[in-house]
Amino acid sequence: MYSRLDDESDVLFVTDQNDKPLPMHTLFGTGTASQKKVYITELKKICNPKDRDTRDALPEEQREAGGKLMEKLFPRLKREKLALQGDHITGLRLYYKVFTLDDGNIAAGKPVLVAERPL
After folding, report:
1. Are 93 and 16 in contact (CB under 8 A)?
2. C-alpha pair distances (Å), 49 with each of 36, 45, 110
3. Number of other residues whose CB lies within 10 A of the CB of residue 89
């Protein structure tokens, strides 16, 4: 149990082309938390030289960082595991979502599409 909640928490997740969430660890052999760190690291490489925080990243910068992550992830895709998710999957998407604590209430931001790749 946590003694206090941070004011902000974020998550990175993978979906099919219709935005149905998929199990990242099953498909890529790695978890969402570790891949979120890779995404944030890529975003820092883009934003920090411009003296900007990653929270102020422009949509095109988020997509650039997401694209780099997808390039690293895609070779790890376990296609046999993907086939078990259904034969309807024609593409994969990566989303980044931020949750904030506002006056004791959790507010969920809109998921941001940071990468998309057809199969």
Report:
1. yes
2. 20, 7, 27
3. 17
Q: Three-state SS for 101?
A: strand
CA separation for the pair 94, 107 (Å, rounded): 21
* Tens digit of each residue's pLDDT (9 = 90 or more) over 16-55: 999 999 999 999 999 999 999 999 999 999 999 999 999 9
Residues 6+ apart with CB under 8 A from 69: 35, 38, 39, 42, 94, 114, 115
Alpha carbon separation from 71 to 38, 52, 115 (Å, rounded): 12, 24, 10
Query: pTM of the full predicted structure?
Result: 0.91
Residue with tokens 């949509």: 59
| Residue 48 DSSP code | G
